[in-house]
Amino acid sequence: MICTLIFLLILDLVDGDGNFQRVSGTNVGGGTYWGLGRLLTKCKSFDELLELSQRGDNSSVDMLVGDIYGGLDYSKIGLSASTIASSFGKAISENKEIEDYRPEDISLSLLRMISYNIGQISYLTALQLGIKRIFFGGFFIRGHAYTMDTISFAIQFWSKGGAQAMFLRHEGFLGALGAFMSYEKHGLDDLMVHQLVERFPMGAPYTGGKIHGPPLGDLNEKISWMEKFIRKGTKITAPVPMASPRTTGLGGFEAPSSKGDALRCDESNLNVGVLHLVPSLEVFPLLADPKTYEPNTIDLAEPNELEYWFTVLSEHLPDLVDKAVASEGGTNDARRRGNAFARAFSAHLARLMEEPAAYGKLGLANLLELREECLREFNFFDAYSTIKQRENEASLAVLPDLLMELDSMSEETRLLTLIEGVLAANIFDWGSRACVDLYHKGTIIEIYRMSRKKMQRPWRVDDFDAFKERMGFGNKKPCFRHKRALLFVDNSGADVVLGMLPLARELLRRGTEVVLVANSLPALNDVTAMELPEIVAEAAKHCDILRGAAEAGGLLMDAMINTQDNPSEKLSSTPLMVVENGCGSPCIDLRQVSSELAAVAKDADLVILEGMGRALHTNYNARFKCDALKLAMVKNQRLAEKLIKGNIYDCVCRYEPAG
Amino acid sequence: MDGDRIQDLTFVNSSVDEISHLALDIGGSLIKMVYFSTNREKPIDKTQNNSSKDNLLSGRLYFLKFETSKINECLDFISSKLLHYRGVQQYGFPASDQNTIKATGGGAFKFADLFKEKLGISLDKVEEMGSLVSGANFLLKSVSSEAFTYVNSQRNYVQIDHNDLYPYLLVNIGSGVSMIKVDGDGKFERVSGTSVGGGTFWGLGKLLTKCKSFDDLLVMSHQGNNRVIDMLVGDIYGGMDYLKIGLSSTAIASSFGKAVSENKELEEYKPEDMARSLLRMISNNIGQIAYLNALRFGLKKIFFGGFFIRGHAYTMDTISVAVDFWSKGEAKAMFLRHEGFLGALGAFTNYQRVEEFPCTASLTGDDNQNPLVEDLNDNGTIECCVRSIN
Q1: Chain A residues with CB-CB distance to B258 below 8 A
Q2: Do B284 and A124 touch (CB under 8 A)?
Q3: Which ipTM did the prediction report?
Q4: What kind of fold does domain B147-228+269-336 have according to CATH?
Q5: Cα A141 to Cα A118: distance, rounded to the nearest angstrom
Q6: Tell me: the pLDDT tens digits for B247-281?
Q7: Which of A27, A232, A472, B130 would staple B252 via disulfide (CB 3.0–4.6 Å)?
Q8: Can you give the residue ranges of every domain in chain B?
Q9: Full-model pTM
Q10: Which of residues 203 through 232 in chain B touch A, CB cutoff 8 A?
Q11: CA A397, CA A29: separation in Å to the nearest integer?
Q12: Which residues sit opposite A134 in a β-bridge?
């Protein structure tokens, strides 16, 4: 099937699923390029031929307008001297044989001829049918920058900018995917975009100039592969393990691209990852407008921004590797894997630095997720497990005192103290360099108390009064009670135990059902849905409210058995539940959440997002159908300046009422 | 072929007397020449008897071509004609005309200095697209049996209705291809083009087959079989027609596509087969792009010109089939007998006196009966009259 796509460039007119017709086509396609190219250059493979083209100069083979006009432009009809007048038109020269032409030049000339032709015929066909969007697929393109440039240029040229060429990252697999989708019994017809998660493991199938050796299979192979490059001291970019020469492949013709020269390197081959089908993923039902929802707050398309975050991630890498290795007992094997992970992730970063769009649209959330995926790829499933454990224990030890202190306050004061507490406890974040430094200076509780003391209102973003009013304080309206609140929790330790759990308890006390939403898989020191029941159970030992709610929510299995002879008491409690969010990243893309979360969200009327990853890096601008509260302490100077025009350790309490 | 042409020239040189109105179209690969020569044996008395202000010259239009890379042959030819050229002064051409030649094509710019230096002749540059259009208009309006369709190896001459000629699409296939929408005399627009043209056929063909000339390549293509190298629909679908999209099993899915999967080197393919594949690829492509452009502007008539075609049956057949296929039979490709000389003729009509005069030309040259290369262009002449003003 893939072969067919190489040969048959089919221009399909697609109206909708299953509603298309083949409207046109050309026999001058990838097969022609490869076939003619092989005959003329003796290349052994398609990729080799493409690579040759990057070092070519077509002006030695093509007859340019300038060749005919003696170096002049034919300006009257808008043809510059460097426009190709006749592909291969110079090869008619009397005394030159095929051996006298550089294979590079022949390949480039051929590539331009065919790409340009495809672009032109597609444009004319689109025009004929009144279509504005043209998608290009088929294995011929292979993410090859020059081919895409030429086709884009042709479309732009002939349409005078009215139409645009679009390319597909999985271009070569359209037919194969279509064949795959036609297995009706798989029920793949209703496949939605949010059910597909793309990962970029080392050695995944990818398009582009080179395939280095067979795809990497098991972990051992991956590690030794990375080690090989460490020994050789080669700088690698992922997943292509060798830096290619940075030639532009530009010959004597006019640049066929609107892009600047900066991106015109031959490494702009787009990567294609492994598509994971996760049918349980759904769009978060409380999003006000899923169509316009964009999870990322910071656009990494801006080069400065990209560079900054790459630096942050790179600097954090040695510390992360140490933690990861320690979490696996610090064995030699763990160290090997740790180093391999560092290499692999650096390679991904280097790759993205060169071509930010290589893995699709790039946001900070994707970058952080990539890191977590990369850790998992090298069998580090929970790098922070020891730290999380330790911090949970330390925080749980002081929780009873904190709860007593809170209970002594008036309801109104208590609400403020609780929000202060959430913000203060959010200082514990292993993802933040500044906070990692803090840890060396004192115990968790000391830091927490110090942090809370500094909570001087007004915060940098301070909608607390609006939230308080909504909660029924300071006005004469009858006290409003939310039916169900979803609390998106962040870090383990003080953050969840001393910050979010007391807030959850307060909501429960007011009769609001609480759902703690936590990660499905570990990411940094974020608490996971697997770990939460244990933490809640421990906290419930010292608190009746939490115990009753946890029992009602089915979190305390043992306790439930004990209280079965007293069912009425159980029913009276407002439930506290835990659901997994479906992801394993410090950020959250609300277009892809677990079906459990989507199910409990249907009855919810309050969403509380906590922490930088979920409330600032992502979702800061997200709008919800219900009340939403975004709480975080900004632990990064640059982000503080950029997002809230403030400083590091400033706090955000953003409240947006429903609608 | 070059030798043949020189012989033609010698013949022309010795038998024809007075040359005037020489016009050139200097393209990337070929120089096309049109000149007018009076015939001493048949002086038109009427002309002589007319008032001195209205002299009609009767004579013939001659068509010649040279390879641009051998421009010296062209210079020599003109040089040899210059003696006669000077002689025309008696018919009333101002002296200034003697040292000026109308010329079009890129070479009119590129070689201007060369002409000045070697022959002392200035090239009066005529815009290229405009020349093509006036040349085509001249042929279509003035020469009977100029345009024809090519269906099942049959030339069917098309009667051109002068009142219903415009608009039409003119596809000039030279080294590259220009597609021009013509709305009337001097009213036209270059709407499209492609770099895959005659130069591509010749250039790629030379690389692939080591063939020495364009015409040899054409002859070779006639003996070839493109199925050896082209990937056909039947090759992909196991011999069955891919009916759903209306492709027969012999339709080409991918030109040169078979060269991909076979481990054969260039030397193992027959040059004839490669020439055939190449010719089909390029002709088919031009036919398709031409049709798409005609469709885009709602043009019913498509005329193909330019030196690529050379009356070559297989080329015309492929272009015709392509236009027929893509238009589902609604459009017809039409060819011109003097296809290669549109630009040169256009430059020729740019001479003031020709332009003024409604030419009533008729074709006299014998059809070349060579079934492969039905090439009228080298020895066909057109009888016509031009007016000279004292």
Answers
A1: 35
A2: no
A3: 0.76
A4: Nucleotidyltransferase; domain 5 (3.30.420)
A5: 11
A6: 666 777 788 888 877 778 888 899 999 999 999 89
A7: A27
A8: 6-132+340-389, 147-228+269-336, 230-266
A9: 0.58
A10: 203-204, 206-208, 210, 214, 229-231
A11: 70
A12: A165
